[in-house]
Specification:
By secondary structure, the protein is mainly α. It has one domain. It is built from 21 helices and 2 strands. The longest helix is centred in the middle third of the chain and has 27 residues. The mean pLDDT is about 80.
């Protein structure tokens, strides 16, 4: 069966039990100030709509346990709207953190625990703060927004790891992630095939680009408005769906649901025309099969290969028809490297980025990447298209080394070893392996794009990191108890 919550757990603590606490009045004053500040953006009717949605989310945060609110955030983070402090994702995470602290003070939530990433995260934050002293004069407002954008997802990491400490809660968050991706796929389908239909007001959307209009009907981007993030998300989601199909194999409805999401994941990835996403998927599939090497039958491999092959052929035909014989496979085959092993699409941009890095190599230029200013200096300058180069520019050598250390710890700590059976894996074990694979896939994607841009990729990244750490701890507890928390669903 899917996630089943006890009535008392789903109902959460009664509002009247919470509202009597003086802690709530302190939090209420802070939240009121944030909401009032948010009303300074946009015409009156738009502001009231945003306020109404904020009040609904605020009610849900107070009404239900924190891990359910985290699941709601994992669903709605793809739809942020602009606020004075950045966007609603930042506000949501700040509010959820305040409520989590209050509920911990009231002993409604368990006390937080240390994780193996704590010291690396501390240094990661420190690197950003040190780089602030390197910012250009007049960039303070943009620097503060950049810090909030990059560091607020860390709040989600600690909320997820601490508030969702059971396998059922992990299962709920995995399903929330799947549902979130289903919505993203819906927006990608609407963008490509029904782009003239307006279903989300353009004034609501935060970030760059549009999800409507003729310019968006070729390479799919969806609500993410970047085909790089969409293709990577598809690659990660497909790996998750493969395991969930095996786990729910005795539940026809859930198994069918995850089969459909998996097929759509592959289809949308191909329609993005993004080479990096396809490589991340190929690695994920091979690596997952290497880990789950017990009990794999030839007919399963053949069936999977035929399905993926059919999807590739159909998607390539659609992409070729709309982009003039330019397809994902043809772009991948045509990729060239110069004498310095730089891809053809980065041969001008990366040398310009490197010159910028050498101006302040130790502490960087500050958290805010001023794209327009850098382009005014060198028209070859653009987004770094590499998360490591991006950090080298913004937080310097110190910061990029800390990021590499953080990734190394996460990957090696969650490494599950080889010789596992997907059919016999418990939920905690299976998801620990899946999200470990996802972390590496995401890291591969960071070699050709960057999560530091003003979009939701940084939140997507920390969602995966938090689920990987949570699943690791739950699987470890399961092994220590020598009895699975729950067996494959019947």
């Amino acid at each position: 069966m899917g996630p089943q919550l006890k009535e008392a757990e789903l109902r959460g603590r009664r509002i009247q039990d919470i509202i009597l606490s003086p802690w709530l009045w302190i939090a209420g004053a802070a939240l009121a100030g944030l909401f009032l500040g948010s009303l300074s953006i946009g015409p009156a009717n738009q502001r009231y709509i945003k306020l109404g949605l904020g009040l609904i989310l605020g009610y849900l945060v107070l009404r239900f346990p924190v891990y359910i609110s985290a699941g709601i955030f994992i669903i709605v983070y793809t739809l942020p709207t602009v606020l004075w402090l950045g966007n609603t994702n930042i506000l949501f995470l700040l509010c959820l953190t305040i409520v989590w602290v209050i509920k911990y003070g009231l002993r409604i939530e368990a006390s937080p625990k240390k994780t193996f990433l704590d010291w690396a995260i501390f240094l990661y934050i420190l690197a950003h703060l040190v780089s602030v002293f390197q910012m250009r004069t007049g960039d303070l407002d943009n620097t503060v927004r950049s810090l909030l954008h990059l560091l607020s997802p860390l709040l989600l990491f600690y909320i997820v790891v601490n508030a969702a400490r059971t396998t059922k809660r992990l299962e709920l968050l995995a399903q929330a992630f799947t549902f979130s991706m289903a919505f993203v796929y819906f927006t990608a389908i609407m963008e490509r095939f029904f782009h003239s239909i307006t279903y989300i007001p353009s004034w609501y959307l935060w970030g760059q680009g549009s999800i409507y209009g003729e310019a968006q009907v070729f390479r799919a981007m969806g609500i993410f408005r970047t085909h790089g993030l969409l293709s990577d998300a598809c690659a990660l989601c497909l790996i998750l769906q493969i395991f969930l199909v095996a786990y729910y194999r005795r539940n026809r409805f859930l198994a069918s649901y995850h089969v459909v999401i998996g097929i759509v994941s592959m289809s949308i990835l191909m329609l993005t025309g993004n080479r990096g996403g396809l490589l991340a998927l190929a690695f994920g599939l091979v690596y997952m099969l290497w880990i789950f090497n017990k009990g794999i039958k030839v007919r399963h491999l053949v069936t999977g290969a035929l399905i993926i092959g059919g999807i590739i052929l159909i998607s390539e035909w659609i992409l070729s028809a709309q982009e003039g014989n330019i397809t994902l496979i043809s772009r991948l085959i045509a990729t060239e490297f110069n004498e310095n092993y730089i891809p053809d699409t980065r041969k001008d941009g990366w040398p310009a980025i490197w010159e910028l890095i050498m101006q302040k190599p130790i502490a960087g230029h500050g958290p805010y990447y001023d794209l327009l200013y850098y382009r005014s200096i060198d028209n070859h300058m653009g987004w770094p298209h590499n998360a490591f180069l991006f950090y080298f520019v913004t937080i310097g050598l110190f910061g990029v080394l800390i990021y590499i250390i953080l990734l190394t710890i996460l990957i090696f700590k969650t490494f599950p070893g080889r010789g596992h059976s997907m059919a016999q894996a418990s939920l905690a074990k299976g998801l620990a392996i899946v999200f470990h694979v996802n972390v590496i896939q995401l890291t591969i994607g960071e070699l050709r794009t960057d999560h530091q841009r003003p979009d939701v990729r940084v939140i997507f990244m920390w969602v995966i990191y938090s689920l990987a750490v949570l699943a690791y701890y739950l699987w470890r507890e399961e092994r220590q108890s020598k009895s699975p928390v729950n067996l494959p669903a019947k």
